[in-house]
Design brief:
single chain; mainly alpha; 16 helices; globular
């Protein structure tokens, strides 16, 4: 059992070092600044932002779509890999699931931040109409959050039992892990129920994950605007979400591998496979981008032409081409080569993909809003352009910091890599009728 004991020692949650404490402190400072900025927004109204009758959504909704996209890969990809029996992904499943939970929590909060009267949110539940895509978005996000939490929690039951025993000399901590383990003993009946529950959740999360991105796409596609008037938006959003989510997993797995010295468990093989997956997803998303812009360019209606001009050579050209070239084309070219799929190059590519994915959502939302089919007459010229104010940026950075803080705290108290699953795959339980908890 020496190997098993070493496995536990390697994978139990570790206390924050000095660098970790500085990181948490930095995130808390950013969040506090954002809370003050949000207080100002609540006190004085949305008029202190740069959103107006043209750009009525702005950076907040861009951020919401980004969080929804990031959340997809965590639950959906791990669910598919679990169902297909791809054991190579075991060290990455919890990382992806934690990202999914943190992202979907912040997606819901971002919607509230965008509301001018957030205290009226209960009206969505009391008076929501089934004809409105917004009520479906709320329902799907709530369902997706619940299933994502369950998909994170259920595989943790054996690990909580292991941690209860490991921290026996720390009664308070041991007690909490014991409660969370739901009296896990590792017997045959529990194992059967455990496996059925995880498989059921993995099946349920797939249609819900597709639903949340399709419904979010409907919010745009059912609004008659150039750039959004497309039946392609559902698959276009799903393809983009796969890219953003895979990029986020790559970035987080590299950081955790470095910080917690997990090179033995998150190997170069895992980076190589994630790199191959990411290049495939980038190619699929590039196809949808070509389809999304080629058809309107072919039709060249007056409104679509103005919108595409803004993207290709106008005010948003730098952002547009940076997101396409930097966030998709360069990553694809780099990842086609084995050296590009090594940990450090892939980490840098992952950063490019995630940053490009965020700006891509900004480009999807903002330029379209500035080109309505029926322009508003007699409004100030400043309403015809939009760029987030300092207050909007501060709140947006606060939401990103909050997502990172949720991940950081979860990784502090949960095993980053599943202990029980890893031990089973390594064959440490073969000589035992029940797991040695």
């Amino acid at each position: 059992m020496k190997k098993y004991d070493k496995l536990i020692e390697d994978l139990v949650p570790k206390k924050f070092g000095k660098l970790g404490q500085i990181w948490v402190g930095f995130l808390i400072v950013v969040i506090l600044c954002a809370m003050y900025a949000y207080y100002q927004q609540i006190d004085k109204g949305l008029s202190i932002t740069n959103m107006r009758d043209y750009a009525l959504w702005g950076v907040y909704i861009s951020n919401f779509v980004f969080f929804v996209a990031i959340s997809l890969v965590g639950s959906l990809v791990t669910a598919i890999l679990r169902l297909s029996g791809a054991t190579w992904s075991t060290p990455l499943t919890r990382i992806a699931e934690v990202i999914a939970v943190a992202a979907i929590i912040m997606a819901g909060l971002t919607i509230i931040i965008d509301m001018g009267r957030p205290e009226r949110i209960y009206n969505i539940f009391l008076h929501g109409r089934l004809q409105s895509p917004i009520i479906w978005d709320v329902l799907v996000i709530s369902t997706y959050l619940f299933i994502s939490i369950m998909l994170l929690f259920f595989p943790l039951l054996p690990d909580f039992a292991i941690l209860k025993k490991y921290y026996a000399k720390q009664p308070k901590l041991s007690k909490w892990y014991g409660i969370l383990s739901l009296n896990w003993k590792g017997n045959k009946e529990q194992e059967t129920l455990y496996n059925k529950s995880i498989n059921t959740l993995s099946i349920l999360i797939i249609p819900v994950a597709f639903g949340i991105h399709t419904v979010t796409a409907w919010l745009f596609a059912t609004t008659y605007r150039p750039g959004w008037d497309s039946s392609n938006f559902g698959p276009y959003f799903i393809a983009g979400a796969f890219v953003a989510g895979a990029g986020a997993v790559v970035v987080i797995m590299y950081v955790l591998r470095k910080v917690y010295h997990l090179e033995e468990y998150i190997t170069d093989m895992h980076f190589d496979k994630m790199g191959k997956l990411l290049v495939l997803l980038c190619l699929v998303y590039l196809y949808f981008n070509v389809n999304e812009y080629l058809v309107p360019a072919y039709k060249t209606t007056t409104e679509e032409a103005a919108h595409l001009y803004d993207l290709f050579v106008g005010d948003y050209a730098i952002l547009f081409w940076s997101a396409i070239i930097g966030g998709l084309i360069i990553p694809t070219l780099v990842l086609l080569f084995p050296k590009g799929r090594k940990p450090l190059p892939l980490f840098l590519v992952g950063i490019l993909v995630v940053v490009g994915a965020w700006w891509k959502r900004f480009i999807i939302v903002t330029p379209t809003l500035l080109h309505p089919f029926l322009p508003i007459q007699g409004v100030p010229k400043s309403w015809h352009t939009y760029f987030p104010s300092g207050l909007e940026w501060m709140i947006t950075f606060g939401t990103l910091a909050s997502a990172l803080l949720i991940m950081t705290l979860l990784f502090r108290y949960l095993p980053i890599i599943p202990i029980h699953e890893t031990a089973e795959e390594k064959g440490y339980f073969k000589n035992h009728k029940t797991n040695p908890l």
